[in-house]
Amino acid sequence: MTSTISSSGGSVIKPSSTSAKSFYVTSSPFEQKIQYYRGVRHGQHIFISGTTAVDSTSSPSAPQIKFPGDAAQQMRVALEECLQAVRALGGRGHESVVRVRMFVGKQEACGPVGEAYREFFGWGQGGSGNPEVGTAATMIVVPGGFVDDRMLVEVEVDAMIES
Predict the structure, then answer these.
(1) How far apart are CA 124 and CA 116, in angstroms?
(2) Model confidence over 58-110: pLDDT tens digits?
(3) Helix runs in 4-150, H state only
(4) H helices then E strands: how many in the chain?
(5) Do residues 88 and 12 lie in contact, with contact meaning Cβ atoms separated by under 8 Å?
(6) Which of 95, 90, 97 lies closest to 12 in space, CA to CA?
(7) Domain 44-160, what fold?
(8) E-strand spans in 10-51?
């Protein structure tokens, strides 16, 4: 038995009523083409796949990237998508995120990507100065870039659900 619950932008799939796993899928052309899930929850852990600023309404054969040339805006779009997935899988949002991995295609994009990260997860940020917001973080420059030259950043997020 598989149950599906739709949320804005995606659907949560529960393989069975006894499964400890549930999945979050969106209409992203890359998810459709490669057949991976945007997010997976297993017990109290939530793992969000590498997320970029891809336009989810674009075709898998011709994916479009939002804000070409603007690493900070691409980071904001990707983080919003990650937070949407965290919430859909039962997390609270910013407060539930414990780790962020940032992959940056060009060294010069590190500053703008870091600034956008700080807006979301800097000490006590999360849009409201919430002291529960803060993460472990890693930023890595990917010298060869990504599957699309217009992508400047890709983000992975891990979150925990409190019991």
Answers:
(1) 14
(2) 887 888 999 999 999 999 999 999 999 999 999 999 999 999 999 999 999 99
(3) 29-34, 71-88, 110-121
(4) 3, 8
(5) yes
(6) 90
(7) 60s Ribosomal Protein L30; Chain: A; (3.30.1330)
(8) 10-14, 21-26, 39-42, 45-51
